User: Fold this.
Amino acid sequence: MQEQPVTDSSAFNFSDKRIWVTGAGRGIGLETAKAFCQAGATVTGFDLAFEEQHYPFSTCLLDLRSPEQIACVCQDKLNKDKQVDVLVNAAGVLRLGNLDELSGDDWQACLDVNVSSVFYLVQQLNKTFKQQKNSVIINIASNAARVPRMKMAAYCASKAALESLSHCIGLELAEYGVRCNLVSPGSTNTPMLQSMLADEDALARTLKGSLATYKNGIPLGKLAQPKDIASSVLFLASDMAGHITLQNLVIDGGATLSA
Assistant:
């Protein structure tokens, strides 16, 4: 008897799929949108700004802090093409500061972009997802949702809320064949992280950890790259993950240990 292949390469063929990716202007969102394009998907990227001149996918300006704008853009897109097979919520905002330094706007921005926008987007796509019965939602959270970080109260709280929201979405939509999972990166080489690393010493502290800030190091001894996160998103969106929902895939080189 001929041995059957362990994996099916066609599982990463998204040629008949419509993919929406928020935060597609840079970082993990951009890398994810490009990866889906390379896999044959028709991709629409949403962000507050797109700095490059050319992208391999359609771009749409969207302020994710505005529920009204989210509703308007979604309805416009759905009127033109009702098919949305995969929604990837990769947009994220990080505001740093101690509790007495964070402003109300800092707190609200993290909540609005990192978790509320996901709620409003899923609300708009809810009817489409239920009708299609095989859609996928993947939310980019953070390992910071599970381990507290100094100066990151707003960010950590918003990502923890996103994790809980995602599980509720997945549970509610499971009967319609809709899968909802999270991908939780650790320190990833993106513009967001680079803005936090002032010099090589800061990078070294990130890799080795810091007792002064109660931060574990990264056992693998390196930062994640955006493509590491994007490839995991594609897996969770594929038929190979067809029985995976309500899960959180942590990609942080072991930084959270058993958390």
